[in-house]
Inverse folding.
């Protein structure tokens, strides 16, 4: 499936979802005073937030590419 | 500090929720800017803030002794005997009491914090996945380095003017003579005999 078929709206929703879940896990890791909270933050929360940001940036690139019909 | 970070995270979640429910809002220019803040800038700041908080937290004595095998090491800081080096440093605040473990066991080289984090993850793996070691059998890989002691003591008047230290300074700096195992300051965390030792009870 091409990225244009997915649509910017869907990419933004995926990005928002990943960021929200990652940030929620970060709150849990901050309130939980335990060595495992660092693992939760570093491996789960940070990965999800990073992936969410990446998906958002991909959607920006997608917006920046002009539609094929307007190129000429 | 954590309160401010949590407020920032909640704000970021609230902003991201808007674009989860109504992604079509980003057609307007002002919403595009808000989307950039809510889905890129704020989450990135939350990540940096979270990492900073977790790193600071992992330096606390309470954090280190929250692992089951480290409990006797935490107790050994209260041994009522000036010959016990960690206890003497902890009780007399020669190291900050709330970051006592980190003060003596941190790797102060450039990539030291990264190495420390990798060691910490290895210990978490041992604690939760493989078999946790017997507390009395835990040894530092490669032995305790003089550099840890010299990080604070080198240049201190009482240390430098001590004739024994002065005579063997080069040997101490080059790690040829160990501060701990050479017989001078050889009692560190004596966890094997902890139950037989007298404990200091701090008065509030």
């Amino acid at each position: 499936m091409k990225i244009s078929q997915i649509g910017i709206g869907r990419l933004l929703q995926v990005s928002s979802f990943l960021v929200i879940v990652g940030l929620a896990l970060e709150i849990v890791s901050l309130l939980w005073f335990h060595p495992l909270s660092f693992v939760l933050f570093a491996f789960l929360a940070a990965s999800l937030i990073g992936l969410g940001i990446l998906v958002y940036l991909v959607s920006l690139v997608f917006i920046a590419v002009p539609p094929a019909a307007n190129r000429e | 500090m954590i309160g401010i970070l949590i407020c920032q995270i909640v704000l970021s979640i609230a902003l991201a929720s808007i674009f989860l429910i109504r992604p079509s809002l980003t057609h307007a220019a002002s919403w595009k800017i808000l989307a950039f803040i809510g889905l890129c800038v704020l989450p990135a700041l939350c990540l940096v803030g979270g990492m900073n908080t977790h790193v600071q937290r992992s330096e606390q004595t309470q954090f280190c002794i929250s692992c089951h095998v480290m409990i006797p090491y935490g107790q050994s800081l209260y041994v009522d005997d000036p010959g016990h080096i960690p206890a003497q440093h902890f009780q007399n605040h020669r190291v900050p009491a709330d970051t006592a473990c980190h003060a003596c066991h941190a790797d102060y080289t450039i990539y030291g914090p990264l190495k420390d984090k990798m060691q910490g993850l290895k210990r978490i793996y041992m604690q939760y996945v493989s078999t946790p070691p017997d507390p009395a059998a835990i040894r530092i890989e490669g032995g305790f380095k003089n550099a840890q002691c010299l990080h604070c003591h080198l240049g201190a008047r009482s240390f430098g003017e001590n004739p024994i230290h002065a005579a063997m300074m080069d040997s101490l700096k080059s790690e040829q003579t160990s501060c701990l195992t050479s017989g001078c300051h050889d009692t560190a965390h004596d966890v094997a005999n902890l139950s037989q030792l007298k404990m200091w009870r701090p008065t509030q």
Notes: The longest helix of chain B spans residues 29-57. The mean pLDDT of chain B is 89.
